[in-house]
Amino acid sequence: MPPSAATTLAYEGALPTGPEVARKTMFGSPCAFVNRQMFFGTFEESLVARVGPSRAAALAAQGEATIFTPTEGRPWSDYVAIPSATAAEAARALAAEALAWTRALPPKGKPSRAVRKSRR
Question: Considering the entire predicted model, what is its pTM?
Fold first, then answer.
């Protein structure tokens, strides 16, 4: 299910800008990438941020976020989800943290030729 207009606006308002930030879609929803890795996006009515497994666990333990689980029983342990109605300042801070964390990871390799062909 694509995000509502309100969720998309919350995403746009929180998204950091810069030449390294690439906008794409994932699961049919707007997302942002750095070094070919997703760092921030939307999923249904949530904002999703990649902050690393220990930080994600800490945010979940504090009740500030939940571990992002796009498919039941298959959590993405280094991503958190917050409601799109979260205060704009908190969402911007989380997005900036996600950009910094993901930027520090090794760049993701390019897809193989077979994968590129299958996408056509």
Answer: 0.87
